[in-house]
Amino acid sequence: MRSFFFRYPRLFRWTMNLWPPMFFSGIRLVELSNDFRYARVDLKWRPWTRNVNGTQYGGSLFSMTDPFYALLLFGCLGFDRYLIWDSSAEIDFISPGVGRLTAEFHLEDEQLHEIRQQTAEGDKYFPEFVVYIRDQQGTLVAKVIRRVYVRLKPAYRKV
């Protein structure tokens, strides 16, 4: 059985947009597919999201990618079956981010199959996902690599 919010993607998106760390950072979950395999997140252009150089603050870019692969995996694999945590991440700033920025998150069938296969015996698995942050003109602003910890909950592990 999936957690309440993961059964209702529209409610989930609405709730995420009101969550204080997102709301006050200018981060908005703009689109979420019903199957939790795709999400698009925007970072608004606000005075409090800018750095001393007048570009988007790097911490805000990093934050806009923070929970989304873990949340998409919960939606696809099951909140009740799996332990899923962000494990580590790295960011490469490519060009200055000016204006509204966008990041897209995709989960492919092959990735989900690999995760299920690697965790079937109860083992830990650390899949990596790449997120590209772009400005409104499509210019690459940053590349983020996110590593996620995935493991079956104890009740579902083979003893």
Q: Can you walk through the features of this model?
A:
The structure is a single chain. By secondary structure, this protein is of the alpha+beta class. It has one domain: Roll (Thiol Ester Dehydrase, Chain A). It is 28% helix and 31% strand. It is built from six helices and six strands, in the order αααββααββαββ. A six-stranded antiparallel beta sheet has the order 1-2-4-5-6-3. A hairpin with a 5-residue loop joins strand 5 (128-134) and strand 6 (140-152). The model has no long low-confidence stretch (mean pLDDT 92).
Order of helices and strands: HHHEEHHEEHEE
Oligomer: single chain
- CATH class placement: Alpha Beta
Going by CATH, the architecture would be Roll
Structural class: alpha+beta
> Which radius of gyration do the C-alpha atoms yield?
16 Å
Q: Could you tell me the mean pLDDT?
A: 92
Q: How many E-type strands?
A: 6
Notable traits:
Thiol Ester Dehydrase, Chain A, 159 residues, alpha+beta, 6-stranded antiparallel β-sheet
Short description:
The protein is of the alpha+beta class. Helix content is 28%, strand content 31%.
List the helices and strands and how they pair.
Elements: H1 4-7, H2 9-18, H3 20-23, E1 27-32, E2 38-43, H4 58-63, H5 68-77, E3 82-93, E4 101-106, H6 109-119, E5 128-134, E6 140-152
